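Technical annex, item 7. During the second reporting period the consortium partners agreed on a shared format for inverse folding records so that results from different sites could be compared directly. Each record opens with the tokenized structure and is followed by the designed sequence. A conforming record, contributed by the partner at site C, is shown below for reference.
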């Protein structure tokens, strides 16, 4: 209605007068507004439809006019009680064109008929300013029996909205793929949707009135009941609460995620708790799978960091178990083939898997010591199964699963045993994995992983992880085996290239040390040597091949062999280095040719680059070397140097000095001559030959290292007050190495020290004889007298015979004066000097020859013989071993007769 009817405005007093039916005539009795029942209902209502549709009511008197007007009617129809009471409802609400049927309807109502219809009314809140109300009119009588009417009005748009909301709610509730449920305030189920009913296997109508205890195990039901009570009391929602249970008729455990929230009526009163249940069993399983993958990846990452940190087989096995227990399993052990541990070069395991193994590691998180778990038993204790102790060597029975795993290199799974077998026999184990340890297609051992009862049994992912862990450990163990093999070979090579630990020399006290720069391989290019020369002379050699490792060691071995060969030719030191230079230039070229390497080696020696780009500089071998020859009779030492650090000399009572030996060019450069210098060494003098690794490193320069070496040698032979002390040469070596920085690991270190103790005059017999036949007899006499004075009567006959042969040859084939010299040290040496240049040559005489047997006789009766050139001719010598009192020397008569 666009306009209010005339007379709608009423005085305020009239409003109050309408309350009494006496003053206003017959009217519908007032309805009680409050009662004990209504009070109880108001205190804890379940909610009502009227909270949503907002029902309005008013009453008509016997005269057809409005007698009572509710506050809801004022809200709905927009008229106050003052404006509505006493008015004709048709004129007040109905549009003019519809008032005639409206009056008829009111008349019918007053005659006692009910009426329901849609009545348009003025509604300022509506879009077009007009609304439609559904009015239900019920006839009524007052206390006097006069007829009136009670009217109830509802806005049609509110009803339509309610219908739409109900339809939408029903669609969401019934068609959702998620499980919806509703609990009342008494925590009993009011309603569930079809999805929820399918999950628990009951019809929808059978859930009404159920409690959580009817659906879930007691523990889970307690949790859900407490959560429902908390949400109902606090009004705070709860999301993603995990619930575990079983679907009726299925033994599988299911897992749900439940979210709860409190429901309210239109007036805000709590009416229950609604919930949403989602089956997350698959998601949980996927999460567990993902967690397992992450755990395995973390375990593999840890294994990569912790397994194989050393090249020791037992340590690697223990590292494997440290990673596996308890992160992956509860018990574990590692068995390795005994042949592998003993360094056998043959394949470690027999084809049938019955080779001997040794238990190298065991770890347990559930026991204090080894237990028999998996398929473990020694071949000789099948009937009496006992745990295998760490370190024990054993075999597996041929038909056992362990032997089968070793034969086939395939993982085997051993299920847990019955508990009646006893704890000591592994009765509490869930399952065991027997994993062959395979490296480079070779089985090196067997790893066993076990889980105790209560743990999850091994799955496919666990098997793959166990194989990966065992493979990583197997590769590390095989690397350790290969390293040990190569290390042993390197040691054999290095020891074969170096002189024995306690070399001996006439007139010299020798001590030596070798420290490889690479402790892993213990091979390098540094070397030293002590070579005995004729006449009780000694050659001292120290060299350094540039580079490291096996290639440098091989080059060093070739040079050392060449040095020994050249030294036995009794060449001068400078000549030896010149020949070595030629050899070094041919080491890195095909066929030993040194022409192509000459330019490259010279450039490298001068710090430049090779002119020929086609030359492979990596094949150019350069070396430094110092070569010295000491004569204990003259106490003179001749030095020649090829680019090597100078020797250090410490004379008695003097400080350590660097010897001024011409440096020369390194071996392999070629084309440069070598110089030599001769120095007289007094008795007690200390001579030190070394390589640059002893005095040079990144931390200090070469000059600083040389100063430190001199200082160490000074303090080694002096006490605190400056007095000389008689320290052994071994102690001096140890003092030098401990004082200097010898642990830098940058280069090999070789140290050769010699203390001079020349031959005394009593140990030398030296005579000069004329070039005449009588000198032969005189030589025999002199030799006899000298040997008798030395107490070597057993050697007199042999010495006389051999001396006469050498002197005779000197008279026949030599020139000039003859010199006879006898030297006594660890052996007896006889030398015959003459001025001839023709070297004697041993030959086999025929039966008819009258001569040619002298040198054969010398060779038969002596321990060694030879000849060497001298600046004034040649020297022929022989050597006899001193008698030890137990064995006699060769019989000269028998030797002489053997020539025919």
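Designed sequence (site C submission):
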């Amino acid at each position: 209605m666009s306009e209010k009817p005339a007379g709608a405005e009423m005085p305020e007093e009239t409003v109050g007068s309408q309350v009494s039916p006496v003053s206003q005539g017959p009217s519908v009795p007032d309805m009680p507004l409050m009662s004990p029942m209504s009070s109880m209902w108001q205190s804890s209502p379940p909610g009502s439809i009227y909270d949503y549709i907002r029902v309005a009511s008013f009453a008509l008197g016997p005269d057809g006019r409005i007698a009572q007007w509710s506050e809801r009617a004022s809200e709905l129809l927009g008229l106050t009680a003052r404006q509505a009471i006493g008015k004709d409802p048709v004129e007040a609400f109905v549009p003019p064109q519809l008032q005639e049927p409206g009056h008829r309807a009111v008349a019918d109502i007053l005659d006692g008929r009910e009426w329901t219809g849609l009545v348009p009314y003025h509604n300022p809140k509506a879009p077009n300013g007009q609304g439609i109300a559904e009015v239900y009119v019920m006839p009524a009588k007052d206390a006097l029996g006069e007829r009136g009417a009670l009217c109830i009005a509802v806005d049609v748009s509110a009803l339509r909205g309610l219908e739409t909301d109900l339809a939408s709610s029903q669609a969401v509730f019934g068609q959702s793929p998620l499980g919806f449920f509703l609990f009342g305030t008494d925590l009993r189920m009011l309603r569930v949707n079809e999805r929820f009913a399918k999950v628990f296997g009951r019809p929808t109508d059978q859930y009404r009135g159920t409690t959580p205890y009817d659906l879930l195990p007691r523990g889970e039901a307690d949790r859900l009941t407490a959560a429902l009570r908390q949400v109902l009391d606090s009004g705070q929602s709860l999301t993603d609460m995990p619930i575990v249970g079983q679907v009726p008729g299925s033994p599988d455990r299911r897992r749900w995620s439940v979210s709860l929230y409190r429901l309210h009526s239109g007036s805000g009163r709590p009416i229950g708790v609604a919930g949403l249940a989602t089956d997350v069993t698959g998601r949980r399983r996927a999460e567990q799978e993902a967690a397992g993958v992450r755990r395995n990846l973390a375990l593999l990452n840890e294994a990569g960091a912790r397994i194989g940190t050393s090249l020791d087989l037992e340590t690697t096995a223990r590292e494997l178990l440290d990673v596996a227990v308890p992160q992956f399993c509860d018990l574990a052990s590692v068995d390795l083939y005994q042949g592998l541990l003993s360094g056998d070069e043959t394949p470690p395991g027999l084809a049938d898997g019955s080779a001997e193994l040794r238990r190298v590691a065991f770890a347990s998180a559930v026991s204090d010591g080894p237990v028999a778990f998996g398929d473990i038993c020694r071949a000789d204790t099948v009937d009496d199964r006992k745990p295998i102790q760490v370190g024990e060597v054993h075999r597996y029975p041929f038909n056992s699963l362990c032997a089968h795993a070793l034969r086939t290199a395939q993982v085997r799974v051993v299920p847990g045993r019955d508990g009646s077998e006893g704890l000591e026999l592994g009765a509490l184990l869930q399952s065991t994995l027997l994993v062959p340890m395979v490296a480079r297609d070779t089985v090196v051992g067997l790893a066993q992983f076990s889980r105790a009862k209560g743990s999850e049994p091994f799955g496919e992912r666990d098997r793959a992880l166990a194989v990966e862990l065992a493979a990583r450990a197997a590769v590390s163990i095989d690397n350790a085996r290969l390293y040990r093999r190569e290390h042993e070979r390197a040691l054999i090579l290095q020891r074969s290239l170096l002189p024995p630990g306690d070399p001996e020399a006439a007139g010299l006290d020798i001590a030596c040390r070798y420290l490889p720069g690479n402790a892993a391989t213990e091979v390098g290019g540094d070397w030293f040597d002590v070579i005995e020369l004729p006449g009780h002379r000694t050659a001292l050699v120290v060299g350094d091949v540039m580079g490291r490792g096996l290639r440098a060691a091989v080059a060093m071995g070739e040079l050392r062999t060449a040095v020994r060969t050249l030294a036995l030719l009794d060449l001068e030191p400078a000549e030896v280095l010149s020949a070595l230079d030629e050899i070094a230039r041919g080491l890195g070229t095909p066929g030993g040719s040194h022409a192509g390497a000459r330019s490259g080696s010279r450039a490298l020696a001068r710090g430049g680059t090779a002119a020929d780009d086609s030359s492979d500089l990596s094949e150019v071998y350069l070396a430094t070397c110092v070569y010295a020859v000491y004569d204990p009779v003259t106490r003179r030492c001749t030095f020649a140097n090829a680019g090597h650090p100078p020797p250090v000399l410490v004379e008695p009572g003097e400080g350590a000095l660097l010897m001024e030996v011409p440096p020369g060019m390194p071996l392999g450069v070629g084309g440069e001559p070598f110089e030599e210098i001769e120095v007289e060494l007094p008795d007690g003098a200390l001579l030190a030959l070394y390589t640059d690794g002893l005095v040079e490193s990144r931390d200090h320069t070469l000059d600083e290292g040389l100063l430190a070496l001199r200082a160490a040698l000074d303090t080694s032979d002096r006490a605190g007050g400056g007095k000389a002390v008689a320290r052994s040469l071994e102690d001096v070596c140890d003092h030098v190495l401990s004082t200097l920085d010898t642990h830098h690991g940058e280069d090999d270190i070789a140290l050769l020290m010699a203390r001079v103790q020349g031959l005394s005059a009593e140990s030398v017999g030296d005579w000069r004889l004329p070039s005449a036949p009588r000198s032969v007899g005189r030589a025999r006499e002199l030799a006899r007298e000298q040997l008798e004075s030395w107490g070597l009567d057993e050697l007199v006959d042999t010495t006389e015979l051999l001396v006469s042969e050498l002197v005779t040859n000197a008279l026949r084939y030599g020139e000039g004066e003859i010199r006879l010299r006898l030297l006594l040290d660890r052996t007896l040496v006889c030398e015959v000097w003459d001025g001839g240049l023709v070297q004697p040559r041993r030959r086999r005489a025929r039966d008819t020859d009258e001569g040619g047997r002298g040198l054969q006789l010398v060779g038969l009766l002596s321990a060694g013989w030879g000849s060497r050139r001298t600046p004034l001719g040649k020297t022929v010598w022989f050597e006899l071993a001193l008698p030890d009192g137990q064995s006699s020397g060769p019989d000269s008569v028998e030797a002489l007769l053997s020539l025919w």
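The two ends are 164 Å apart (CA to CA). The chain is about 35% helix and 25% strand. All partners now use this format for quarterly exchanges.
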